[in-house]
Design brief:
Layout: E1 13-15, H1 19-43, H2 48-53, H3 56-81, H4 83-93, H5 98-111, H6 126-150, H7 157-184, H8 194-199, E2 202-204, H9 205-211, H10 213-219, H11 222-227
Antiparallel strand pairs: 1-2
Helix pairs in contact: 1-3, 6-7, 9-10
The chain binds protoporphyrin IX containing FE (2 copies).
């Protein structure tokens, strides 16, 4: 059984994510997951087996802080060296419109196995636009509350008090989103090709045209040729 969509080199491919975006995404993913599993050691009771992986409860606390700093550095790296990509990403979110709403209505049917048309989408589809807002917001809350919890003497007591429930709630939100996102960005048959865009940088041109028609036309298709 094949889990991932086959990577085809014998067909035309187009660039989807540059190296900076890919380094930022995967660096962030690894450090986020390390924060999550070490955080769960601190959050849940009776998970000695999980604590043992990180050298006990103290070890988990230490790895949590090291991963948190590494995660912050990956995001700073992405924002500084990928400034243009970041701006283009934000601009695309403002293009949320009727096509995205139709996509979001149809998508659950696709997940249930029905054959539904893919409505013309910009660079990020309706679901990715939602993910692009909810997940980074949760991560931002995790970072802000995390540093407040780390250095409580620097902040007023009421802020430290709300930082704990904020950190826990943001963790639950972000984890829920990442579970759905991770599946859609890898094993899901319809969108699995997107994995190669984030791993190797390119996706099949026919897949790009089918899944992100507006973006494909503007970047590689007729509209892009007219602009040249
Ligand atoms: C810059 C990012 C982050 C910083 C600075 C940070 C910092 C902290 C600190 C200082 C603690 C308390 C540790 C202790 O009691 O020894 C903590 C706990 C925790 N962190 Fe983070 N963290 C960050 C990101 C994350 C992420 C990404 C997740 C999960 C997705 C996460 C999940 C947790 C959980 C579940 C706890 C336990 C909270 C509790 O006991 O109620 N953290 N974090
Ligand atoms: C668990 C493994 C993960 C996989 C397999 C994965 C896969 C992917 C893929 C393939 C894309 C590109 C989608 C496209 O073509 O537009 C992407 C984008 C993105 N990823 Fe991940 N990712 C993972 C983890 C994470 C984590 C942990 C976060 C943040 C906490 C994250 C946040 C994002 C965001 C914000 C985007 C851009 C918006 C979107 O496409 O939904 N990813 N990811």
């Amino acid at each position: 059984m094949q889990w991932l969509t086959e990577y085809r080199e014998d067909v035309p491919r187009v660039e989807r994510f540059n190296l900076t975006a890919r380094i930022t995404h995967w660096g962030h993913t690894v450090t986020f997951l390390l924060c999550l599993f070490t955080g769960l050691v601190l959050f849940l009771n009776g998970v000695d087996w999980l604590a043992a992986i990180f050298g006990g409860y103290r070890g988990a606390g230490l790895i949590h802080r090291i991963s948190a700093v590494a995660m912050t550095l990956f995001l700073i790296y992405g924002a500084v060296f990928g400034m243009r990509g970041l701006a283009a990403w934000i601009m695309d979110l403002f293009r949320f419109g009727v096509n995205d709403i139709i996509f979001l209505v149809l998508f659950p049917f696709e997940l249930l196995g029905f054959k539904v048309p893919v409505w013309p989408q910009t660079r990020f589809n309706g679901g990715e636009k939602m993910n692009s807002i909810i997940t980074p917001m949760s991560v931002l809350l995790l970072m802000l509350s995390g540093y407040i919890m780390w250095f409580p003497s620097v902040f007023p007591a009421w802020l430290v008090g709300i930082a704990y429930p904020t950190h826990d709630l943001a963790m639950i939100f972000a984890t829920f989103m990442v579970c759905i996102h991770g599946y859609l960005g890898s094993f899901h048959p319809g969108s699995g090709e997107s994995f190669w865009g984030m791993w190797k940088g390119t996706v099949r041109a026919d897949w790009a045209e089918h899944h992100h028609k507006v973006w494909y036309d503007e970047t590689y298709g007729e509209k892009a040729k007219k602009k040249e």
